[in-house]
Structure to design on (227 residues):
């Protein structure tokens, strides 16, 4: 299996842009998906297959990838974006999924 | 409405067993790989297991291999997780999640069911 590493916490001023990163060897082979989780709620998919948004996800959310790092960018962060964000992708075996440790985003 | 609803959680003693269920509705259940993901209190998400649409392939995280069994009944639109030899480390909210057919994204999640392992 492989690991995905995320910064535990990130903060952003209201209306500014923030990037949340996810690092891992398997990201050289597989695209990451990104999830938003608010307290007491189930996770919600916000980005999949590198930079695709499910319906209903605002276009201020975008994804990118380079080498062993995937990034989730929120352009013009809103108060409602304050949440935990998790990345995931397949591990090196291709059979298992792994999640990053999560990043707590605070909107100031 | 596309929906997943988990049930079967509860309090169980160490060494005990529990069977979780996930009822799917609003989509063609038999066409999708399904997953179980758990989240210990105050911790991050952990992938537990997946089963392909026709149950041909099944995979587990190492920590539950040999103790947990995932299964599905496509006729009943249901996913299951049989959990045996439970320990305190298995205490978590357990989510079932649908895996998108094109990407590896989990596009539909249930609300979760809490499993507490304690004496």
């Amino acid at each position: 299996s492989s690991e995905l590493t995320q910064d535990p916490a990130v903060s952003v001023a209201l209306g500014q842009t923030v990037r949340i990163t996810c690092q891992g060897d398997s990201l050289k082979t597989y695209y990451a998906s990104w999830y938003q989780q608010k307290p007491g709620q189930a996770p919600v998919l916000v980005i999949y297959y590198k930079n695709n948004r499910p319906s209903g996800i605002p276009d201020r959310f975008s994804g990118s990838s380079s080498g062993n790092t995937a990034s989730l960018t929120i352009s013009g962060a809103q108060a409602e974006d304050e949440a935990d964000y998790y990345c995931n992708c397949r591990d090196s075996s291709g059979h298992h999924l792994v999640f990053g440790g999560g990043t707590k985003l605070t909107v100031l | 409405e596309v929906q997943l609803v988990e049930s079967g959680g509860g309090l169980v003693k160490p060494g005990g067993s529990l069977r979780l269920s996930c009822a799917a509705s609003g989509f063609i259940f038999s066409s999708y790989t399904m997953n179980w993901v758990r989240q210990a209190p105050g911790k991050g998400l952990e992938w537990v297991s997946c089963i392909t649409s026709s149950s041909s392939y099944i995979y587990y995280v190492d920590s539950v291999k040999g103790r947990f069994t995932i299964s599905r009944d496509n006729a009943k639109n249901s996913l299951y997780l049989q959990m045996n030899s439970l320990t305190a480390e298995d205490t978590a909210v357990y989510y079932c999640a649908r895996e998108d057919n094109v990407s590896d994204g989990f596009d539909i999640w249930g609300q979760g069911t809490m499993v507490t392992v304690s004496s």
